[in-house]
Amino acid sequence: QVQLVESGGGLVQAGGSLRLSCAASGRTSSNYIMAWFRQPPGKEREFVGWISPNGRSTYYVDSVKGRFTISRDNAKNTEYLQMNSVKPEDTAVYYCAAGPSYTLAWSLYQYWGQGTQVTVSS
């Protein structure tokens, strides 16, 4: 079992920055692909990006490319989502997830955090 806890959400103005963290405990999270998803108000959960177990590879959905950066520190069992140049449409509950596969499908990730709210004001 892997337990994930997100932090760092909050209110930010459009154009600003925010960094989310996802702390893992339990089974070694460094063996897993880590991902971020988000769920905007009234919409379905959507993929944001993933990072490989060794942190050398990342992949992002087009809407966040060039603005968001995923990183991980396996020594600290922590994954990060650096959000720059945020837009009101980035408003959502953000979730971190861990799983064995490189996939955009949320149902294929085994472990989830509880989510953290990010609100971007215009």
Question: What would you note in describing this structure?
Answer:
Strand 5 and strand 6 (about 60) form a beta hairpin. This protein has no helices and 11 strands. By secondary structure, it is mainly beta. Strands 2, 4, 5, 6, 9, 10 and 11 form a 7-stranded mixed β-sheet that branches. The protein is globular and about 40 Å long. The chain has strands at about 1-5, 10-15, 20-25, 35-40, 45-50, 60, 70-75, 80-85, 90-100, 110, 115-120. The model has no long low-confidence stretch (mean pLDDT about 95).
Task: Give a quick precis of the structure.
By secondary structure, the chain is an all-beta fold.
Characteristics of this structure?
mainly beta, 7-stranded mixed sheet, 4-stranded antiparallel sheet
- Compute the number of strand runs: 11
Sketch the major β-sheet. 7 strands, mixed
> Which class best fits the helix and strand makeup?
mainly beta
Q: Distance N terminus to C terminus?
A: 40 Å
N-to-C order of helices and strands: EEEEEEEEEEE
Mean pLDDT, rounded to whole units?
95
Helicity level: under 10%
| Computed Rg | 13 Å
Query: Quaternary arrangement of the chains shown?
Result: single chain
Percent range for β-strand residues: over 45%
Poorly predicted runs: none
Shape: globular
Please report the number of helical segments.
Answer: 0
